[in-house]
Amino acid sequence: MTALGTVDAVVIGAGPNGLVAANALVDAGWDVLLVEANEVVGGAVRSAEVTEPGFCNDLFSAFYPLAAASPVIRGLDLHHHGLSWTQAPNVLAHVLPDDRCAVLHRRAEDTAAGLEEFASGDGEAWLELCAQWDRVRDPLLDALFTPFPPVRSALRLLRSLGTADALEMLRQAVLPVHRLADERFRGEGAAVLLTGNAMHSDVGPDAAGSGLFGWLLCMLGQDVGFPVPVGGAQRLADALAARYAAAGGSLRTGTRVERIDVEGGRATGVRLADGTHVRARRAVLADVDAPTLYDRLVGREHLPARMGAALDRFHWDNPTLKFNWALREQVPWTASGAHGAGTVHLGVDEAGFVDFAADLSTQRTPRHPFVLLGQMTTADPSRSPVGTESAWAYTHVPHAIADDDDRLREVADRVRASIERHAPGFSDLVLAEHVQWPRDIEGADSNLVDGAINAGTSGIHQQLVFRPVPGLGRPETPVEGLYLAGASAHPGGGVHGACGWNAARAALGSGGVVRRRLLGTAWSRLLEHSPGGA
Predict the structure, then answer these.
(1) Nearest 5 degrees, angle CA 184-CA 190-CA 193?
(2) What value does the mean pLDDT take over residues 518-526?
(3) What pLDDT, in 10s, does the model give residues 18-44?
(4) How far is CA 338 from CA 176, 189, 334, 371, 402, in A?
C-alpha cells in the first residue's frame, strides 16, 4: 500500500455538498484533499452533450431555487468563479388533462390572478399564503439549512409569529398537501401547483409533511424563481471547484475511496482503489449516501450494535426515469401558459396525483405518470441553437420495476404519449433522444441508488432526528472524526449545500473530546432504545 501523505481532512465525493464542505474547510486554513470517483466533479449537478452537438443537457438536477435561497451557496460568491444565473419568463406551469393551465409566476399577484380564473376567492387565498411566507421567510430558511435542532431560528420564528400563529404554522407544516389545498382553495389550479411542487420530493399528496414541501417550493418560485446556471448545471459545480482550487485545496478525480480507516474508534484516513493510503489528522467528511458510508466504507463492526438494524430499515426514495431531447423547435404546447415556463408539469389532475402515488407505493406500473418537463433553452438561450430547444423530462417509478426493461418501456411510452397529447407534433421535432434508465442514473453517480435522487425518502419518518437513522439529526457519526456530508443527512436532498456546510462546521467545532464523547453516548442511548435492534 502506497502512502500519499497526510492532510487535515479528506472529503469523499465532489457533489455539491462535498464541494461546499471542502470550500468551508479550506477557508478555515485546513489542508484538504477532495476525492471524487468520477472523472468530473458535480455529482448530480452535471451537464453534457448527450443528444446532438450544440445541445447542452443537464443529466440530473436542472433548476435551483434552493441554491438561490441558500445562504450557504450565496455566501460563497461563486459569481467570482464563473457562475451566472438566468431564468425563464415564467417559473412553472401545470397542464391539466383538459388543457387548462395553472401558472406559477414570479409575481404573486400574477399567480393569484390566474388562480382566480379557476375559482373565485382563490387569488386572495393564494396571497394569504404569500403573506405568511413574507413573515417567516428568513428564520424558516435558517431553520432548514442549519443543524438540528435549530434553536435560534425556532426562537426567531416564534417571535415573528406569536404562539397561536406558530401552532397554526406547525400544523400546516405536517399537513398532507392534498389536505392543505382542500382547506385553502376551491379550485384545482392552486391544488395542482402545490401538489406538483410537493412531488418534486418523493412525499405523496396524502403523506404528512407534503404540504410544507409544496408551499415552500411555490413560495421560493415567486421569491427567487427557479434559476439555472448559464451554460448548464456543470457551471455550478465547476464554480465550486474553481473556488476551492483558488483557495489552495487539492482535488483528485477518477479515484474511488474503498475504505475509511478506523483506529481506536476514530476515523484516521482513507484507502483508495489504487492502494494509496491518505491519513487525516482531523477529520473525514463523506458526501455519500448513508448505507454506502456505514456498510461499505466503515463497516458495521465499528458501529453501535443496534445501528445495523436501523440501517436495515433505511428507506430509499423512488427511482427515476429520465429523458433528454434535442428538439428542432420549441415544444408546441396547445396550452398557452406552458410556452414561457421553464418547468412544466403534466399527466395528472388533482386526483391523478393520488393515483400515481398509490401506484408507486403498491409497486404497480404507473398508468398515468406524473411528468416533470424542463424547457432549458426557454430558461437559458445558450443551451441550444436559436429556434431550437434543449429539453428533458422525468417521472418516478416503483422500485419493483427499476430493473424491468419491459415495464420501464411501458412507462416511457406513456410519458411520450402524455407530452404528445398536449403538444401535438412533439415527436416529429425530436432530433435526438437520450434516455436514462434508473440503472444508468446509478451508474453515473453511485449515490443515486436505483435512480433515487434524494439519498433517502423525504418522508417525515426519515427527517429531522430520524435522518438518516434515529439519532441526533446531525452530521456527526458514531465514529469520532467522521462526518456525514451528503444528502442522507439533515436537511436532505436538493442543491443547497447545507449538508456539506453543516458537516464542515461540525468538524471545525469538534475540538472538545468531552463534546465528542457526549455525542457518542447520545447515539448509543438513542440506538439502544430503537425498535428491532439486535
Answers:
(1) 130
(2) 40
(3) 999 999 999 999 999 999 999 999 999
(4) 27, 14, 8, 14, 30
Q: Do 135 and 158 form a contact (C-beta atoms < 8 A)?
A: no
pTM, to two decimals = 0.92
pLDDT of residue 518: 36
Per residue in 354-401, pLDDT tens? 999 999 999 999 999 999 999 999 999 999 999 999 999 999 999 999
CA 209 distance to own-chain centroid: 16
Q: In sequence order, which residues have a C-beta less than 8 Å from that of residue 436 and are 6 or more positions away? A: 59, 320, 321, 322, 323, 324, 444, 451
pLDDT tens column, 207-238: 999 999 999 999 999 999 999 999 999 999 99
CATH topology of domain 44-106+225-230+318-452: Polyamine Oxidase; Chain A, domain 2 (3.90.660)
The answer to whether residues 279 and 117 touch, using CB atoms and an 8 Å cutoff, is no
Q: Is the pLDDT of residue 452 over 80?
A: yes
Residue 35, all three cell numbers: 476525492
248-271 residue pLDDT tens: 999 999 999 999 999 999 999 999
CB 257 within 8 A of CB 271: yes
Domain 2-39+253-315+454-528 in CATH: superfamily?
A: FAD/NAD(P)-binding domain (3.50.50.60)
Pinpoint the residues of the chain covered by CATH 3.90.660.20. 44-106+225-230+318-452
Using alpha carbons only, how large is the chain's radius of gyration in Å? 23
DSSP one-letter string for 129-185: HHHHHHHHHHHHHHHHHSPSS-HHHHHHHHHHH-HHHHHHHHHHHHS-HHHHHHHH-
Q: Dihedrals φ, ψ of 357, to 5°?
A: -60, -35
Which of these, 117, 103, 161, 168, lies nearest to 137 by C-alpha position? 161
Q: Which residue spans of the chain are classified as CATH 3.50.50.60?
A: 2-39+253-315+454-528
What is the spatial distance between Cα 22 and Cα 28, in angstroms, rounded to a whole number?
Answer: 10
Q: Residue 154 pLDDT > 80, yes or no?
A: no
List CB contacts of 523: < 8 A, sequence separation 6 or more: 304, 307, 471, 472, 476, 477, 478
